[in-house]
Amino acid sequence: MNWKIITWFICISLLCVAALMAVSGIIACFTPGDESWIPLLLSASLTGITGAFPLIYVRRGSQKLSFREGNCIVVGAWFLACFFGMLPFLFYGREFTPVNALFESVSGFTTTGASILNDIEALPRGLQFWRISTAWVGGIGIVTLFSMMTGSTYRSTLSGAEISSIALQPFAGERKDSYANRMLATYVALTLLTFFCLKLTGMGWFDSATNAMSACSTCGFCTRNTSIAFYANPAAELVLSVAMLAAGIHFGILFLAFLRGRPKYIWKSETIKVFLSLVGIAVAIVTLDLMLRGHEPSFGKALREATFQVVSISTTTGFATEDTTLWPPLSMAVLVICSLICGCSGSTSGGIKIDRAILAVKGIYRKVVLAVRPHAVQTVRIDGHIRPDEQVNDAYGYIFCYLLIVVLFAAVNMAAGVDFTTGLTASVACIGNVGPGFGEVGSMSNYSAFPAVLKVTGMIEMLIGRLEVFPVFYLLRSIRAN
Fold it and tell me: Model's pTM, two decimal places?
């Protein structure tokens, strides 16, 4: 591999991170009494120098990027962004020990939304904005964002390495950098629209901006200790629910539907219809369960709580309006299933993705049909297009690896003394980039009580989940091959 070109691109990603730190530092400077401007600007300087210094001696060259080099850039950029992203927290101190600072940074960049903070509201506004900014950048993808500054040849390779092939499938035949441009345009437009709608509900400008960024990145970081429950604002909950659902849908299809004025694309997509149908079924089950178990006094209140929590978990956002650890067992089980499958590929949602689940189910159905009728012609189709066996097998392999990782890390959690519910749901929440689980890591709790070793394993899971498993394996294999 060409390590010079890999170093060059990773350094560019660090400069982007430094610029975002500087913006957060400027916000702190203009906020009376905000002492976080020093750690933010100091971190921005150190990150900027680290990113800029090698560029003086390293030349990119004119050769094309190979897939191995692109994959190495993607994984390396994510790792280093998370490492340097912890500096503002570390320099600020208080609750941020080195492990806690790195945990908060990894959780933000991977849009997991798991936190170690016991008093979020005590955090200065500059650090609040930096914390949410890591999530917003992580939502679109660090490499996808900085690749906008590179040539189209490099942009295509880098986007192809960071964006999964299943996300690109609806636009097969088009250039990968074209899809990245559409994704970024849709992401920015959705964030701005959500911001203005939240302002109309009476929310302050800072809370509107941070909650819009968090909802559209499906992270779930909030500036309030009790998350969205703090506002007790049904209109804001409705706006955030719609924003989270939109962020869980394929951005390329959203681009065609709204920015190109072709809403029919939403209803033509089998994947989106299945996703929205499953969310609707989950909402109905949880609503009935909450009412029949006497957890909510009225149908309206049960529907409101069920809708927000199901949408939040299904899109891996993790916002909360209630403590779901107090919910009936059936409702909790539905939320766990939602946090495994999650939204569509090509969105900011994590998890297995509904696309892979559909491929796997149709692949299994085909096997059953062929076992009964060996001479039948049975293909796997989605949206009218035949999917090759390789893609179906990839879905099987991904789901197997995903669930295997969930089980292995859950076992590690329980071996360290965590109870079964907490250990299992924490593992599901970390690899799915969901954030909250149940037990000690419920929707109104956090990960501060976890021992340092489990915070480290949690961070590993978050990164594996955000990079969608295989890029990490590809990197390890590439390094071994060299």
Answer: 0.90
